[in-house]
Amino acid sequence: MRKNIIAGNWKMNKNLSEAKELIKGIKEGVLLEKINNTRIIVAPSFVNLLSVVKVTEESIIEVAAQNVHELNSGAFTGEVSANMLSGIGVKSVIVGHSERRSIYAESNELLAKKIDGALANKMEVIFCFGESLEDRTLGKQFQVIEEQLKSSLFHLPEEVFASIILAYEPVWAIGTGETATPEQAQEMHLYIRNLLKKNYNEKLSDNISILYGGSVKPSNAKEIFSKPDVDGGLIGGASLNSSDFLKIIESI
Ligand code: PGA
Predict the structure, then answer these.
(1) Burial class (CB within 10 angstroms; exposed 0-12, middle 13-18, buried 19+) of 17
(2) Which three-class secondary structure state does DSSP give residue 109?
(3) 126: Cβ below 6 Å to ligand 1?
(4) Which of 5, 6, 9 to mutate to test the pocket of ligand 1 (most atoms within 8 A of CB)?
């Protein structure tokens, strides 16, 4: 049975003391009895990962990185490898976020290599994908999503899919305050699940958690998460404040 997951993407926010304050607030506020079958993940910036790993030791909160290089080592000034991340206790990594695709020109092919590198280091991957406003206006959203999944993910053998979390994030909803309607999210999540069924099998498709991301906040989380194929959310802005993040966790 797949799990619900609430993941907070802190992006390039929070210095060390702010990051510690935020993670302590989340850790103290999480009420175990209210988080039925739900995993909680936070993704701080690279420099704050180790401190957040230490604060969350022996808690149910897991720590993810926001990016990773595709290779394990080498002359790549400024980059960080999966080997380094797993070495400090980081269990998962976000790959394919729309900001990495658009601002840093990360292609579907590069993302496939990053996924392979992370999996080779036994890390879990939170793979993000989603259509632009233009794609949706042209009615191309399903085609675009299928292409993103096919070229970055569908080369993987079935056995490694237990280490993949999917995050559907329509680009037009990220950081804009505009959310997909619960019906739009459900429609796309079901489409994705059917693609998994077609390319792999029903068991795999039933077991994969598919998160929705894009302007999720305490006021809209419950309705979005109530949809049968939405297994939680990847939260940006509303994960930067422990009280909002905790409310979103409790709404699942
Ligand atoms: P947002 O970001 O919640 O601020 O829209 C979501 C994301 O970028 O993952």
Answers:
(1) exposed
(2) helix
(3) no
(4) 9
Domains belonging to the chain, first-starting first, are: 4-251 (3.20.20.70)
Rounded distance from Cα 174 to ligand 1 centre (Å): 5
CB 235 less than 6 A from any atom of ligand 1 = yes
Report d(CA 94, CA 113) in Å as an integer: 13
- pLDDT > 90? residue 31: no
| pLDDT interval class at 59 (50, 70, 90) | very high
CB 41 within 8 A of CB 5: yes
Contact 85, 68 (CB under 8 A): yes
Band (178; pLDDT cuts 50, 70, 90): confident
The answer to whether the CB of 9 is under 6 A from ligand 1 is yes
Could you give the 3-state DSSP secondary structure of residue 234? Answer: strand
User: What does pTM read for this prediction?
Assistant: 0.97
Is the pLDDT confidence value at 68 over 80? yes
List all residues 6 or more positions away from 62 whose beta carbon is below 8 Å from its beta carbon: 39, 40, 41, 42, 56, 91, 92
| Angstrom distance (rounded) from CA 251 to CA 248 | 5
Does the pLDDT of residue 33 top 80, yes or no? Answer: no
Rounded distance, CA 151 to CA 114, Å? 12
Q: Ligand 1: does its nearest atom lie under 6 Å from the Cβ of 44?
A: no
- Which stretches of the chain are DSSP H helices? 16-29, 46-56, 82-87, 98-103, 108-120, 133-137, 141-152, 182-199, 202-207, 218-225, 242-250
Q: Are 40 and 62 in contact (CB under 8 A)?
A: yes
CB 230 within 8 A of CB 5: no
